[in-house]
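=== RUN LOG ===
request id: a7f3
mode: sequence -> structure
chains: 1
length: 185
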Amino acid sequence: MWQTLCPQHWVLPRRPRKSWCLMYITKIRLEEENARKRSDGVLLKANIIIEKGDFLDKLKKVVAKAEKDGFTVNYTSGVVIERNSLLNMACISGRTKIAKWLIDEKGADIESFDRGAFTPLLNCAWNGDKHLVRYLLGKGSDRRKVGRYHSSQGIAPLTFDGLDAEGWARKRGHEEVANLIKYGL
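=== RESULT ===
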C-alpha cells in the first residue's frame, strides 16, 4: 500500500531497510522541508528587490523562476520576514506597481496577514499610503480587520485588542487616509 502512495519521481528500493511507512514519511518530510527552504529563499530575494525600489521586472523574473518549483505568491514563511507574503512586503514598502501586479496578474490574497494580523490595507494605513489604500478598498479589502502590532514594532501587550485600518491611520497621524478608510472611496 505504501508503494502506491509514493510519487512516481521517487526511486524506490525493492526491499527497503526500514518499513515502507517510515520510508514514505521520511521522504515526504524531506521534500516538504526542501520546498520550504526554496520558498523562504525566494521571499528573501524578493524582499531585497522590494526594499530597493519598485523594480517590477526583477521581481517578475524571480517569481516566474520560483513558480516552476511550486512557489505561490501567497506563501508566508513561519520563519522569515515576519510571516509576510509578497503583497504585504510590497505594501509595507509602498511599492504600488508591485502590489497592483501581484493582485491583478497573480491573484494575490488581499486579506493575507502577518504575525501581528496586519493585512495589506492595515500596512498601507500604517504608512499613510493614500493611493494603495484607495486601490485596496476598490478591490474589496476588509476595512474592519483588526491588527494587533506592526512588524516593525515590538509585540503588543496581551491587554491590547488592536486597531482597525482607520484606527492605525489616526494613531500614526494620517488623518486624510483615516477619513478615506472611514467614508470610502
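=== NOTES ===
Residues 6 and 151 are 40 Å apart (CA to CA).
The two ends are 58 Å apart (CA to CA).
=== END ===
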